[in-house]
Design brief:
The protein has one domain: Glycosidases (TIM Barrel, Alpha-Beta Barrel), CATH 3.20.20. Helices cover 44% and strands 16% of the residues. The chain has twelve helices and 13 strands. The strands form four sheets. Strands 1, 2, 3, 6, 7, 8 and 13 form a seven-stranded mixed beta sheet that branches.
Length: 341
């Protein structure tokens, strides 16, 4: 896509940062030595290099957004290698899932290293976790998870597990299973934060997270309030996508209370998400609601040429005029420019 035009448009609309989707669990939209490089790099160029260049020109921060673990875009050769090495997830029903298993130390290291590669090679302003979780409550039950959890259980209780995986559904086993799942995701977040800060302390680390805290800590292992309070994130973007201004206000207020004063929060407004479609005036109402709650900024999902044409004129009329705080958009370079989260 045309990064120069996109950044110019974002800057003129009052945005100060972009979350640019340039990496997946098994795909890089830049010149990577760790992940399979997307064919789009040969066609359109190095997405990170181009976005950083344009961002510097127009004063828009670039935060590289990675869809962690998810390998739905990965080439077959990569998937076959992950499969043969036992690194893909498996549901409770035994069906393979095309996500890297978060408890596999090799996969954890790949997530950390891929972010570090980006920070070393490019003058980015931040990195952004997405899908930093399990796919759902019925994951992961691969053989690797079984062995690693059984070891964890043995160390905690001194006993052996029986009736796998049914044993994880109730009682003490369930409690320790959920604790162990949370720890696998937290390991990636904490190690990435430490590693990135050693390379470039000024780079911001953030995450797009589920809105239903604390439920998401158990359902998908995403205990993002703990990450914030432990100092493993610099800001967080709950995906508060809803058509209801009242619901948006409630979710954002609850999250603010849970976070306390730990880190800034930029709530996500879903102008075109799977769970919300907003008119420009509905978008403005939710931006104002975020400000009423004292939020230092907000994020929009998602930018397309159509949404820029529809929403940006309304934003420039008031809510992004002479903005002093951080207002964040994000771009998904798979199409000609998608603002995400």
């Amino acid at each position: 896509g045309d990064w120069d035009a996109a950044m110019k448009e974002l800057a003129e609309a009052g945005f100060t940062a972009i979350l640019a989707n340039q990496a997946w669990g098994g795909e890089a939209r830049y010149e990577s030595e760790l992940l399979p490089v997307s064919p789009k790099v040969a066609q359109y160029g190095d997405s990170i290099a181009e976005s950083v260049k344009a961002g510097k020109k127009y004063g828009v921060e670039v935060h590289v957004w990675k869809v962690n673990f998810n390998c739905s875009n990965a080439p077959n050769e990569f998937l076959e290698r992950m499969r043969s090495e036992g690194r893909l997830q498996c549901g409770r029903d035994g069906v393979e899932e095309l996500w890297l298993c978060p408890s596999d130390p090799r996969n954890q290291q790949l997530e950390v290293d891929s972010f570090c590669e980006i920070v070393r090679k490019y003058d980015v302003d931040g990195i952004h976790f997405d899908y930093i979780r399990f796919p759902g409550s019925n994951y992961c039950f691969c053989e690797g998870c079984r062995g690693r959890f059984c070891t964890f259980w043995r160390e905690k209780t001194g006993t052996e597990l029986t009736d796998w995986p049914r044993c994880t559904l109730s009682g003490e086993v369930r409690d320790l299973w959920l604790e162990w799942r949370r720890a696998q995701i937290a390991e990636v977040v904490s190690r990435t934060y430490s590693a990135v800060k050693k390379i470039r302390p000024e780079v911001e680390v953030s995450a797009a997270v589920f809105r239903d805290y604390p439920n998401c800590a158990d359902s998908v292992g995403q205990d993002w309030v703990r990450w914030a309070k432990n100092g493993w994130l610099d800001f967080v973007c709950p995906m508060n996508y809803t058509n209801s201004a009242e619901r948006f206000l409630f979710m954002t207020g609850s999250q603010k209370d849970a976070l306390g004063a730990s880190i800034p929060m930029y709530p996500g407004i879903g102008i075109s998400s799977s769970s919300s479609r907003l008119t420009p005036d509905q978008c403005v109402v939710q931006i104002r609601a975020a400000r009423e709650l004292g939020m230092p900024g907000w994020t929009l999902f998602a930018l397309t040429p159509k949404s820029a044409e529809l929403y940006f004129p309304f934003l420039k009329m008031g809510v992004t005029a002479d903005v002093e705080n951080k207002e964040t958009g994000s771009k998904e370079n798979e199409t000609a420019g998608k603002l995400e989260k």
